[in-house]
Amino acid sequence: MISLILAAVLGCVYVYLRRKDARMLRNGIVLVAACWFALVGITEILAQWFPWTQWIGFGIVALSPFAIVVLAGFLISNGATMMRKEGRSLGNLLSLLAGLALLGLPVLAALLVITLNPVAIGLAALLFFLCSYFGVVFVVFLAYAVAYGKMKHTSVPAAVVILGSQIINGKVPPLLSSRLDKGLEIYRESPPEASPLLIPSGGQGANESRPEGVAMAEYLVAAGAPHDHVVAEDQAVNTAQNLKFSAAVARKEGRDGPLVVVTNNYHVLRAALLSRKLGIPAQVVGSPTARYFLPSAFLREFVAILKEHKRLHVLMCLPFIALTAFLTAAIIAVSQ
Fold it and tell me: d(Cα 147, Cα 41) in Å, to the nearest integer?
């Protein structure tokens, strides 16, 4: 019962924090904690009413190594699909690398332990602590990325900013057309007397024949958007610049007010976090993405968020390092 009460309290806190500002990762921490306590509370009640359900929990724990192997196999298979369809860039290899890590790290930890060397055992313990920490952080990220991606925009935007991605042979590929179609959908849903400005945003990459924003603007106009309602931003080379430069374009065009930013569903949370960091009043919405693309895409976004908050994560890992050093010293002391 206590677990369910905690779940209810955390659920209320989550709703309050999300309404206050949905663009904060702490909301994901509260959401995952609420779900965890709810699961524990429901499990406790079921165990009291139906004692046989305890065996289900034991079965899940017993099968967890098998589940890890299955997950690793899925990620490796997905990595092979990404290489075949998208090429061999590091970003496209992330699901493959994650799958290999899921198989290799437990083996490495076991090999360290069986050496019976105190330092090696300490390294195995540190590996366990760090993997557990980053596993929990990934669950928080993924849960809130999905939750944020399901939210609907609630304001009538002054402008709809559509974030760019790589164009191919000067043309808009399917991944980018999904964003543009979503932007057009939001534009057409707005009241005619308050039609937002459409701002396709993206500069010219080294392997692109022209700026992404220009190709995107042509796509929007060809799809029926009025020419005078489309203003391309063609200088940005990353998401932060997309947001900053597009907000400047909106102000220049006299569109002072909230923005709706459109990107693919895997990218919404990081774009939202960046918009908050830059002080830009924006809601971020997601467009559909091919399913095979999602595992590597979410992993890439997770790595990017870790890099943007690297100091915080280093500080959070220091207690694990200190605990490992203490345990290693204790093992050495006992063995002498």
Answer: 22
